[in-house]
Every structure is written in C-alpha cells, then in structure tokens.
Amino acid sequence: MTCWGTRCDPYVHKLLTGAEWDVCCHSNLVRAVLPYRLHESDIHDVLNVFQVTGLTPDEHQYFVKPCPAKLGDYFEFFAEIDLLCALSACPHGDMSVATWGPQAGDPLAVCRPLGVEVYSVEPELLKGWHASPVSSYQGTHGMQLAETAVPHADAPHRTF
Q1: What is the C-alpha to C-alpha distance for residues 57 and 154, in angstroms, rounded to an integer?
Q2: How far is CA 19 from CA 8, 26, 27, 60, 92, in A?
C-alpha cells in the first residue's frame, strides 16, 4: 500500500510517473517560504482545508472529490505563537474537473479565490491566558548515554 501525504508533491509524482512536475501545492508552499530564508524542510503540519482526498478502503487507490465549500465558508484559528502561514490554493482547482486522463479539463475554470484576514485579539479576551511554556524536552529521542545503555540480548557485545 502506498502512503500518501496531505498534499500533492513532486516526489510522489516522480515515483508514480517518472516525470518532473512542480505544479502542486507542495511546490507552491516551497516558493512561498523561500523569501523568508526558509527551506522545504521547514514546511510541515499542513492543514488540508476545503479539500477532499484520501485512499479508497477497498483497493487503497488515491482519490479526489470536488470541494464541498460554499461562498462564505471559513476556517478560523487562534495562534498562541508567532506563525508564518503559507497558503496554497490547489493549482488544479476544486477537483470537480479531471486534471489527468482522457476526460482532463481546464482546472483554471474551477479555481476559486481565497481570502485571508488577520485580527488582533481584544486585550480583555486574553485576561488569564498565558503562552505555553517552551518544552523542556532534552532531545535524546530514546538514546541513552553509553554508561547506561543496555544492549539488546541478541546483539553482539560491544564496548562503548
């Protein structure tokens, strides 16, 4: 079974077709963060809003469906830390037009505008609220120092 991400990317496209392709949300996001001295590895935690994609339960085939969003639908969140948000409207429109295969149409006909509004919160709404503390995690990822490491029973004995 193929494991799919939350957005189209040129890596999966290359694996599936052998062709180079950067007309996708992932490439849009990469281009959006570059002016901020960020890189592809800085793009994570994508929110797939107003898009219906997935794998079929029977044959695990990737599918897309037309966007169910209507004029006036919105997504709202409160950021507790400073964020740089990059927005990518799917270059293939709302998925109501096939973008590959014999029935392929023009996705520009179904591209919809997206709006972004950033608000300041009224100070009285923040009374009693405190920013989350920075994690005190030490970053060992389960690795122990050599003195305390316990070798696996089947592993050859090594001196650290």
Answers
A1: 39
A2: 14, 16, 15, 23, 17
Where is 63: in which H helix or E strand? strand 62-65
Which three-class secondary structure string do you get for 36-95?
A: HCCCHHHCCCCCCCCCEEEECCCCCCEEEECCCCCCCCCCCCCCCCCCCCCCCCCCCCCC
In tens, the pLDDT along 94-138 reads 777 877 778 888 887 777 777 888 888 899 999 998 888 888 998
pTM of the shown model: 0.65
Residues listed for the chain:
160
> Residues 43, 29: contact at Cβ < 8 Å?
yes
Provide the 8-state DSSP code for 94.
T
